[in-house]
Amino acid sequence: MPTETKYEQMYEQRHTGITSVVGKHGNMVNRPPPSFTYERPPFRAATATRRNLPHWRIQRTGFVAARRSWAARGLSSLLLITCLALASLYMQIQNSISSFENRHYPLFDSGTPLVLIRPTEKQRTLAFDMAQLQTSERFAHGVFFFGPHSQEVVDLIPNYDPKFNSIQRELLDDDKIDIEKEKERCARYGLETLNQTEPKRRRLFLGAILGEDSMEVLHAIGSEVYDLFHTVSFVEGNTAHNLAPRKWRYYDPNTPSESLNTLYQMYGPKTKVSVDYYNTSVTNLNGNELLIDNLQREGITLRWQINGMRDDDIAIMKDADETFTRDFLRAMQICDIVEFRPNEDCRSPKIVASTVVFESSPNCPTKDRRWHHPDAILGKCIEHTGDSILHPPAKRHYADKHGLRLGGYGGAVDDDNIDDDGPNFSQYMADNSLPNDTYPLWHGTDMRSGAGGRQIGMINGSPSGFHFHNFFLSADELRYKYATYGHANSEAMEKPVWEANRDVQLAVDCAHDKRDETIMFSDVGIILPIHYLNEDVRNARHQLWQSIVKVEEQYWNTNRTNSGN
Q1: What are phi and psi of 396, to 5 degrees?
Q2: What is the pLDDT of residues 112-153, one digit of tens each?
Q3: Which stretches of 360-513 are assigned E, i.e. beta strand?
Q4: Gap between the Cα atoms of 238 and 248, Å rounded
Q5: pTM, whole model, 2 decimals?
Q6: CB 339 within 8 A of CB 194
Q7: Domain locations along the chain
Q8: How far, in Å, CA of 484 to CA of 384, rounded?
Q9: Which element (helix H / strand E) includes 205?
């Protein structure tokens, strides 16, 4: 079976499972029932055909001249020439439309640039077609399409109503600056306040790429950062990390996307939330399993530019299931952090979280383990925001301009590209005749994968970040992730989930209350995830995970017994 067809079938099987579970428990976050059960959806043979995206209206810049062959035949009527020209234009549009696919955009490979026609039927709504994505950027590796952000959409359906309890509301009611509380906050991290007489908060910009992340996770993070960010930028791609095709989950041309409508509201009405779209033209990963991840993050820095990021803003890059704690986000806004000072030279401008990992359930935080994402950098060091004349671009692995930096240009640390102070910039300096205190701006790729970064946590050991890892709604979703995303395991779809990854085995043990490698929720530290301070929500998620594990174990015990394995 061709690889592409195989993964399309896997997607169809996974998608079928999601629909049954979500349809049954779609309201679990807002109104959790007392318990959950999970029924494993039957596998079914399915050949998923790639659905073409809806038609575009397109128009080539300039005018379309009448064909010379017709003029040569002696046609003299201006009316006839005009009709032929219009017919020719119509055929070009139809031919272009017929070649348009979700996986590849032949129109953007060569030729005259295309101009999207602005629809005039109605205002921009959630039911937009591709012609309403007014801004696009084409690169050697693909195209980014930028849609409206949440404050530009005129017909949001109010389908998101978070039920915060009194404890949660008290933690979220932190808009007013109380200088004494801010001094205490900064001190928790070994920091001081930046300006005690006229305190002012820095603006926060967030970026992440979207994949198969559950709404449970997005809801949990939305609760943590509610009304904190100026901009939340998501980019969704049309392939997984291993180039397996996937459908855009948040894009729906025919009816308002319920997922997008909800996501627009999760981060609070003060925040500009956007989902933009990436269509890759990459056909070979060249040994880099995270190449698509690296390239896709470039769209985030473009969105930040569109939304007006300034030099003194803070840019935060993460995966969709990670977040800084609300307490540390507030600290970043008002505390004196060396990396956020105006004289930052952009060599090592990054700070990273000290992140506790929750495996599949909020009741399964890992013991003696800390993750080192999300990542935060000052706006002046971000591509498209910082000064590219003072900070010329570095050479990179993909077409010189994209992906990770090359050795000698500040690339990942290795034996040939390291000095006493970190990454080597010797070739960058030589190419640009620059002084030793000038360094390149940072791509979204560099923010996530670039070497270095100072990890900041609380002095007492409490975390400054949360990672809600593998909070899926079914075992099949877990399998699909490990079969198609970073460091893909091609056999994951044919194995029990606990054989896909050690992290899953840890979570399975936790479901059985075996806590050799996990701790209790209340033992995480003095700062806990706001979303899961609602005990009903926390227990509902844990019960669902236990149900998933139980059904998974029953299935594989029966299957292996019947097969004699």
Answers
A1: -130, 170
A2: 222 222 323 332 333 344 555 556 788 999 999 888 889 988
A3: 375-378, 396-398, 402-405, 418-419, 422-423, 454-456, 465-469
A4: 6
A5: 0.78
A6: no
A7: 120-384+447-565, 387-440
A8: 31
A9: strand 204-210
